[in-house]
Amino acid sequence: MSLSLYFEVEMEKTQKVNEIINRLSAVYPNPKTALVYRTPWELLVSTILSAQTTDKLVNTVTPDLFTKFSSVEEFANTSVDEVDKYIKRVNFHYNKAKSIVGAAKMVVEKFGGRVPDNMEDLDSLPGVARKTANVVLGNAYGKAEGIAVDTHVMRLSRKLGLTKETTPEKIEQDLMKIVPKERWIDFSHLLINHGRDMCSARPHTCKDCPLKDLCPDYRN
Q1: Of 109 and 208, which is predicted with more confidence?
Q2: 131 and 85 within one domain
Q3: Four-residue CA torsion sign, 69, 75, 79, 82
Q4: Same domain for 89 and 52
Q5: Cβ neighbours for 60, distance < 8 A, ≥ 6 positions apart
Q6: Is 123 a catalytic residue?
Q7: Based on the structure, what is the number of domains in the chain?
Q8: Is 85 a catalytic residue?
Q9: How much is the pTM?
Q10: CB within 8 A of 213, min separation 6: which ones?
């Protein structure tokens, strides 16, 4: 592909992304994470738990968990087995319990009990990769250092023709080129909401979809 054609394609994608954002914003005027939390630490724990698990299930587990362990220090001073008792309904619960306790110890010992507010430090915590870090940065601190790419964002970004990549890291890089930075946080929430409510991975109708004329996969 020539350089001029490349920039033409990227410009078309940017225009398409802006239209997607405008249309979904009309449906979801206040997009935000479905995870229920009170502090950056609670959001970090909830996001670790949400990997390959629905936010709805996570929200049923965390109230008792956060009642039992009400601070990052309490998580740091308990055992993996104790945390695991409260999250057994979540997929890969024991590994997640290990990550949560390990992250708590690191937050207390290295970061003075405060969840880091930058990508590098967040990414250094056990159980945290870019997606989790982006969720915490965007929702707890209002910082856009990247775009959170979960399964909905992966699927719909490809479905809408915004990327051909297949890994979260490469999809994020493609999206960061065409989504306005001031909308990076909202963009993830908009696609997640749309993927949950209307454009699910299961067979579904497209007739009422606000993006139907923008989607190569549109079916009557």
Answers
A1: 109
A2: yes
A3: positive
A4: yes
A5: 89
A6: no
A7: 2
A8: no
A9: 0.90
A10: none
